[in-house]
Amino acid sequence: MNQTPVNLLEIRNLKKTFSIGGEGLFSRPLTLTALEDINFTIRKDETLGIVGESGSGKSTLGRCILQLLSPDQGQVLWLGQDLTKLPAEEMRKRRQDLQIIFQDPLASLNPRMTVGEIIADPLRTLRPELSKEQRRERVLKTMAAVGLLPEMINRYPHEFSGGQAQRIGIARALVTEPKLIVCDEPVSALDVSIQAQILNLLAELKDAFGLTLIFISHNLSVVRHVSDRILVLYLGRIVELATGDEIYMDPKHPYTRALLTAVPIPDPRLARQRTIDGLKGEIPSPINPTSGCTFRTRCRFAQPQCAETRPVLETLDGGRLVACHRWREIEAAEPIGASA
Amino acid sequence: MAPVLTVKDLSVRFALHESEVTAVNNLNFTLEAGETMAVVGESGSGKSQAFLALMGLMAKNGTVTGQALLGDVDLLALSKTELNQYRGRDVAMIFQDPMTSLNPALRLKQQLAEVLVLHKGQDQKQAEASAIAMLERVGIPEPAKRANAYPHQLSGGMRQRVMIAMALLCQPKILIADEPTTALDVTVQAQMLDLFKTLTDDFGTSLVLITHDLGVVAGVADRMMVMYGGRAVEKGSVDDLFYDPRHPYTLGLLHSTPHIAKRAERLDPIQGMPPSLEHLPQGCAFNPRCAFAFDRCMVERPALTAAGEGREKACFHEGPMRYGKVA
Amino acid sequence: MLADNRIKSVASAEAIASEVPAKGRSLWKDAGRRFMANRAALTSLIVLLAVVVFTIVGPFFARWSIEKIDWSVVGNVINAGAPSLETGHYFGTDEVGRDLYSRVIQGTQISLLVGLVGSAIAVIVGTIYGAIAGYFGGRLDSLMMRFVDIIYSIPYMFILILLLIVFGRSFIMLFVGIGLISWLGMSRVVRGQTLTLKNREFVEAAIATGSKPRDVIFRHIVPNLLGIVAIYATLLVPEMILLESFISFLGLGVQEPNTSLGALISEGAQTMQYGTIWQLAFPLFFFITILFTFFFVGDGLRDALDPKDR
Predict the structure, then answer these.
(1) Which of A109, A148, A151 minimises the CB distance to C202?
(2) Does ipTM surpass 0.95 in this model?
């Protein structure tokens, strides 16, 4: 692609907090900061991978983009229009363009509805002008596109395996011909061989329908496989955003570097050779975030300055982003290639 | 040296409403001292059921046949009370979700000490001291303080460490780990796998790692057994199976697993779905999904036979197996 | 546009053979099958239906109406008023010489009606009320549920008695009184269930695919509530019958010459000492049968609709 990429979606200064507890009379609610200072763009036709461990806010981010959760602050600009300011009824209509695929395929399907009803549901509400026959025709076409047989239309979700159920979920997301689909851990609940089928299906559908995908996963190998660019989140903040190759060959942030060495490699010789950059401890609680850099508690390069000021998200050549005070020093001290 | 565990003709059957399914069918394997054997398969492959049966932890409607020789004791022939002596002392098992195996109402040191009091006849004080020492071994910071905590006060990774500590207290000969890292974050998973390696080296414990993740297998296992539809379809060293798979299912799994270092345009998944145990296909159970299947595979089931030094496979094809387009 | 040629390759490559017939098995059918396999529940259902049929067909065989006094037995109920085919008093007569057969039938009808109406009010009001409170949550939920708490905290027996005394004893008042309280428990159950359902992914999926709140509630949440509503409603029927019986037992229920099982039992209990045991036995038999069968049917429904809980 040589033309200048169109920014389909732009996220500006997004912040989302949750208050937990405080329902009772005497307990003061605690504030959990799920996302803060989120700034990035999604280009038309790309697949943007979002990786992070538990508590990184990756699913919250996906839901804030789709306005399934309303962010505390910031803007979600869809082709220049701020979705957070849109009245509910207009947002509801806008959902034709923005869809989602869920992690647990069976839980995301209404057990009392048939496959046909489930897939037709978005059309019923978003395209009321379609006749019953037109609706059915579209449902059948979409089912064919995701590899479901027409005779499955009257069956119920519980009669399907996880992989097939996920195909139903994909068909539901696809039936309104959206421009963007948020895939929230779409393969984590599936068996390995089925995972690969679904990943291939998503790639083919993306090409066939001209989709832009946001692919959220905790599995860096899967994200790297499907994504053009990868956004790495840690405790609700962006630590790095770069192309898949850059992330893999030339990670700048110490967290990305550590994450890469921790990813299991299905290759015994490589796995034995490499040294794991053992991150100390576990992800701290997002309820009382640390001062300065959120990653410093586990970072072996941390210095006093990391505790004092929060690193800003720096834009490097080619539009990649990184948020670390010391990435230049770290790169000089331990060039990549020595490990991995 | 004689193997620690020899399993012969292990079969596990479950009675359903009107039918019976065979979850594990004629499984044979040996486990050497100090080795790590990975058991790989998808849901319904029988990988967990086989080992739950060894531990006497099956659902009520299940029956086991066969032999599981631990030294010269057949675990499957023991009564419940006799089995209890071996369980925890000689063979320990840990699960994917540690929370289900820990008693939420007891402090960690109470739970850990109980094992030692029961199996080793230590007194409470002594047992608690050993428990704290073991917590330190598995990498729990401030073990003396943490020992007073309740399970829910720990993070997922810490709980799994506690489970490992509990399993290793009696220095068992065999540790069976059923998807021990599946629920954990990547960075914590890496720590855990590292811990497994040091611990098996230090204690000489044999580790059985039940998993669906080939990445995890490659990192820690010496040998592996691939299961499909309740049977072992390929066995051998990890290197042999990864670099020269002889069963199309092993090959398919390898090509289904995304590799962080290689950005292939497409994965080569196995077509279709894992079979339902109630309706296993005729002949080779894998034949509907197999790219290499021919007439014989449809009618006859290949037996598990030797396929070179220290490896076995259940497939009629001879020699190395490759997809056409894969280098 | 969905261009067929672009998607054909995907479809053919990934097509999955299906062994199962094309007609789907809905969860309701599955539940029905499990219910049929439950012998206690099925027997109870049959017995219950038999009782209902009896209350419809029975009056055709009655030789006496509910209020006609058989003067021939008055004063000698213990002998002449005993159950007998000859006199036409199949179940005997009551203390004043009225035919117990007709009265038991009528009492059973009334009791069943009270139970069903109470339960129906609970299903309609309680489900909608609870689903709305649970789905919208927040302040509306707090407000609606505190209202339920307040009504709950008023001693309803007292209110009911007051109502019946102030407005006079009538069917309508009885139903109003029972209807006032029957939906409270249901609304709580439904609200709780809605709260869990609301967080299920398929509800989020419905919102994400642009469903209106009304559609989310009535197409996605309510159908999934019906299982628990059905169970609760079935168990509520005997509860309502008991409540009515208690009111009748106190003498505040249905007005003479109409009667209900509770009233009949009350009268029967008072005359037990004179040896006219049938006056207690027949209404009690129907009363217990109805209660037991409803409980068993409710239990069977619970097992059938929610097999995980067994």
Answers:
(1) A109
(2) no
